[in-house]
Design goal:
Layout (H helix, E strand, L loop, with lengths): L1 H185 L2 H26 L6 H64 L4 H57 L5 H98 L4 H41 L10 H21 L5 H13 L3 H7 L13 H4 E11 L6 E10 L2 E8 H14 L19 H24 L17 H7 L10 E2 L2 E2 L1
Antiparallel strand pairs: 1-2, 2-3, 4-5
Length: 704
């Protein structure tokens, strides 16, 4: 029965498998039939498209023939019309020529008189306009001067603060280093270690002697106790001699420091006295102002350094006299007392004498170990302080590079603004000279024939305005020349900058400050005329600094550029990129700006997020497979040129993506039935989570 049941179960399983195979065969046949049907549909659609293309070609050919026929007819008609008009003109030319000549002469006289009046009125109106332009240029020149001076003072203040911080850390490091070196000179670590080992050996000998004294069957117990006592006495005598030598060395060091302090104090007084007399000498010799100010600054810096050095040596002398010598004398006194007490007690053969010496040895051993631990702790603190100082000096050097870079940017901006102002002044001078030239020509013509009362009145009104404009132009040009002289002196004091790449923190700081300066300059330049703005933009494009582009990473575009109808509904761009993270986590992130209707937002995405979005959208919308996506590169990911090129490629990719999706019939971003795009920020964020702000993981370096 069991066998039959198993056989029946196997038969049932086989039956189920057979049915499953039949179902799969039926499904396969149905899928095959569906595939054949789809292939037939594709083939039929292909044939239909070929037929449509053939019809289109035939229609184009017929239209081309018709257009050629129409063009030939039109040419014949135009030739006939021209012949007819020529004949007609020749017929009426003789009759109307005399009448037209008289009418033309009369009309020219009237127009000449009206043009003359209009020119005088225009000149009278342009004089106040030129004056207003000059006033605007003067105001902007003053604002630029104040802004540049404020920025220079801020940079100088930062530099002074950083130098003071580095100086304080350097002084603290020097004090710690000198204190540790003095401490190690007084009690050398190797000497302490040798004394600790000697005390440990004496302790072992004392313990063996104590054990031998407690056992009554040992004969040499007294001899071992005496040997241990003698070793301890020898150790203490050597220690007393070494402490005497150390004390003598410290006394000599104190005498040397006292002499150095006295000599430096006298030289410091002499230098301070010479600095007090320096202002009187500067008043007497004024023609050496720059050199005297430079030497005065150097002497003040030397005075501060001497004061710090003197203060440190005085502190070192006080520490030596108040701390080191008394401590060493106390230690020597204790060692001598222990030595005298041991000599007065004689040999310690009994257990009580051995216990006393053993207690003293263990106490000294603990003191040595504690001192060694203090030495180790002091060395650790000195190492930490050294690392802090090196880190701070490194940051100071990098910030000094940033400040120099900012100074160079300020100077280039000032130079560009000065050149733009010179262009504006030259343009105003050309306009003014043109007005004067036209006025002089008309005065010559007016001398030959009488002029109207209106022209005389206009000329008398324009004369004082011209004189005032000339005076203002001369004043403005003088100010520009003075600004050039001052900027030349400032540039002569600056050192040349290197093009080394600095770390990510410094680059982000430079970008932030450059954006602030660009915003300030953009707000202050809104009051200039359109012609002056065009000249300045041309000068910026010609004189653009590549070093500034390295840190700014901003791409300026003319407004109004669009890609067909995409810019009207969705505007997207990647204006810049930033360096985020440190070490292995260092990467570039691209700033994506999206504008839909009246809504505008910004997200920062790294290259891997672009690639993930491209894969997900390509799987949903096959028409996006033809888009060119910038490939992944295994090497050169940190190169500035490669990142800039990738930024432009990604920007073109996003713009092409939206152009395709806005025209696709399957896209959720397509236009409504009436052909109008009614998109919002929510629609774009639902289309892809890539454009949703804060959707990806956040790290200490920002949203990636």
């Amino acid at each position: 029965l069991e066998f039959e049941r198993q056989q029946r179960e196997e038969l049932e399983k086989l039956e189920m498998k057979r049915r499953l195979i039949k179902d799969m065969e039926a499904k396969h046949l149905s899928e095959k039939a569906e595939l054949e049907r789809l292939q037939q549909e594709v083939e039929s659609q292909r044939k239909e498209s070929e037929e449509v293309q053939q019809r289109i070609l035939r229609q184009e050919e017929s239209l081309r023939h018709r257009s050629q026929d129409i063009e030939s007819r039109l040419q014949d008609f135009l030739a006939e019309k021209e012949r007819f008009e020529e004949e007609r003109r020749s017929e009426i030319q003789g009759a109307e020529l005399q009448c037209r000549r008289h009418w033309k002469e009369h009309r020219e006289k009237e127009e000449e008189q009206q043009n003359k009046v209009k020119r005088w009125q225009q000149q009278a109106a342009e004089q106040p306009e030129i004056y207003r332009e000059l006033e605007r240029l003067k105001r902007e020149r003053e604002e630029q001067k104040v802004r540049m001076e404020t920025e220079r003072r801020r940079l100088e203040e930062q530099e002074r603060e950083q130098l003071s911080l580095v100086g304080r850390l350097e002084e603290q490091l020097r004090e710690k280093h000198e204190a540790a070196s003095a401490l190690l000179a007084r009690e050398d670590a190797r000497r302490l270690e040798d004394e600790r080992q000697a005390l440990a050996e004496i302790r072992e000998v004392l313990l063996r002697a104590k054990e031998a004294a407690e056992r009554s069957d040992v004969e040499d117990a007294g001899k071992e106790g005496k040997c241990a006592h003698n070793r301890y006495m020898d150790f203490k005598e050597a220690q007393v001699k070494e402490l005497c030598q150390l004390e003598e060395g410290l006394r000599q060091q104190r005498e040397r420091l006292e002499k150095e302090v006295a000599s430096e104090r006298s030289s410091l007084l002499l230098l301070a006295h010479s600095l007090k007399e320096r202002p009187q000498q500067q008043k007497e010799v004024q023609e050496k102002g720059v050199q005297n100010s430079t030497t005065t600054c150097q002497e003040e810096l030397q005075l501060k350094q001497m004061e710090h050095r003197l203060q440190f040596k005085e502190q070192q002398l006080a520490n030596l006299a108040e701390d080191l010598l008394p401590t060493l004398a106390e230690e020597k006194q204790k060692a001598m007392e222990v030595l005298e007490r041991s000599r007065s007690n004689g040999t310690c053969d009994g257990p009580s004498g051995l216990d006393t010496i053993l207690f003293q040895v263990e106490k000294e051993l603990e003191e040595k170990e504690e001192k060694l631990h203090l030495h180790w702790h002091s060395a650790q603190q000195l190492q930490q302080l050294q690392e802090t100082y090196e880190f701070t000096t490194n940051v100071a050097r990098q910030e000094d590079k940033v400040r120099r870079k900012e100074k160079e940017i300020l100077e280039s901006m000032e130079k560009q603004q000065r050149e733009a102002m010179e262009q504006a002044v030259a343009r105003l001078e050309r306009r003014h000279s043109a007005l004067r030239h036209s006025t002089s020509l008309e005065l010559d013509t007016e001398e030959q024939r009488p002029s109207s009362s209106l022209t005389r009145t206009t000329r008398t009104e324009a004369d004082p305005d011209q004189q005032r404009v000339e005076r203002e132009i001369q004043k403005l040009r003088q100010r520009i020349v003075e600004g050039d002289d001052r900027s030349g002196q400032t540039q002569s004091l600056n050192t040349p900058l290197s093009d080394d790449r600095i770390n990510a923190y410094i680059e982000e700081e430079v970008q932030r400050r450059l954006r602030e300066m660009n915003l300030l300059n953009g707000g202050s330049n809104m009051n200039l005329s359109v012609s002056r703005e065009s000249v300045r933009e041309e000068e910026k494009l010609q004189n653009l600094n590549p070093r500034r582009l390295k840190y700014e990473h901003l791409v300026f575009r003319p407004t109004g550029s669009s890609y067909d109808g995409v810019q009207e509904s969705v505007k997207i761009s990647i204006p810049r990129y930033v360096l985020r993270g440190q070490g292995k986590d260092e990467h570039f992130e691209f700033e994506v700006k999206i504008s839909v209707a009246d809504e505008m937002w910004t997200v920062f995405r790294r290259y891997s997020r672009f690639r993930e979005m491209h894969k997900s959208l390509k799987s949903k919308y096959p028409e996006l497979a033809a888009l060119e996506f910038p490939p992944k590169k295994l090497f050169g990911n940190r190169d500035e040129r490669m990142v800039a090129e990738r930024r432009s490629h990604l920007e073109r990719y996003l713009q092409n993506l939206f152009r395709i999706m806005l025209s696709s019939s399957r896209s959720p971003l397509r236009a409504d039935e009436d052909g109008v795009f009614r998109l919002s920020k929510l629609d774009v964020c639902e289309f892809s989570a890539f454009f949703k702000k804060g959707v990806f993981e956040s790290s200490s370096h920002g949203t990636s």
